[in-house]
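Shall we go through a protein fold together, starting from nothing but its sequence? Please make up or recall a protein chain and show it to me in full. Go ahead whenever you are ready, and we will take it from there.
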Amino acid sequence: MSASGVAMVNDSSSNITGLNFSDFKNASVEDAESYFLPLPWWQQTIYYAFFIFMFIIAAGGNVIVVWIVLAHKSMRTVTNYFLVNLAVADVMISIFNVLFHFTFNMYQNWFFGMEYCKFALFIAQCTISVSVLTFMAIAIDRYIAIIHPLRPRLTGRIVLTIITVIWILSVLLALPNLLYATIYKWPDRTICYLRWPDYTDDSKMSNQDMAYNILLMVLNYFLPMVTLFGTYARIGWELWGSKAIGEVVPMQAERVRRKRKVVKMMVAVVVIFGVCWLPTHIYFILTNVYHQLVMWPYTQQVYLFIYWLAMSNSMYNPIVYCLMNARFRQGFLLFFRWGPCNMCRQSQHLLVSSRGFYCTRMSLGSERDKNGSMINTTVESLDDHISTPSASMYRMHPMSSKTRGNYYSHNRDL
């Protein structure tokens, strides 16, 4: 199993189907036939229900997240742009990966041809890398905003540049899947897997495949988790452990409270990611140490659950945003206003729509240079996700006093 979570069979024991391709080729006919026995109908029904439910929530929820941010000017903040990038990656892995790989894992037969074998392996690895790098970009942005508040904030152009770099690096990291993915045909089934240049029919494993999977495991899991833990630990100490010098005014306390809410939401997202992917990486380590585990009678059932858990990470993020952020929650209510829910129908004025992608923002540096005093910029205020009526008085918007009055009347609960 590759550390990326790509549901394919590789040359070595590091495959995500639970099947060691080279070990299988050298296994007895009895072992092979027992492995390929179809699951009981009731087990198949349960797995179908789980995967279809996960697909609907992951794809639908993340599309709504993209709409909430891009269709409403007040939601276009640095953090939310990164969340859009994360949502796009989750939508892509849900649409182009989950159901195809679930079918392959269920029947141990690849029905979709050589070209889609390459694409499916590539897009899965690419989107996982995008998610991890986006987590790190959000953590760095939060770190700068909270630990070094006087430094200039990221502009829209810089954010788009960072997102572009994230995708370029992810494509490069996933490129071997396009180059070496292929299919192997038995008389009654087809397997999609990675065939590295150093693999031969007589070899037990590919050293290149092993090195690649270790690289993915380090870059896509262990190194990011350590980095994120250190970053958010430092942020947590700043927000919860340190004490302000002098008297804390209400506006100062409210700003700290808002920052804490954003950090809590992002920590929840990262923890869920770590929990969802940990069994996959444990499985990778165990099957490399104990090759015979891949022929265990219940490997397919266990691995289907592990794979579902890893892929289900894509559906949890919209749920976290809805539960932990009032503005996202109201965006979801606004999206479902056509439904029978009275609360949803009453939310049609909660967010201000705009077709433009960027919103006009005041510069912290320019205001300080002109007046010699510190102010809260629009970027900082919006990025802190104000979610209580009492916080609305502290928001500063680049709009006229007339429109500002109308804005507050419709957005006091954002």
The chain is about 65% helix and 5% strand.
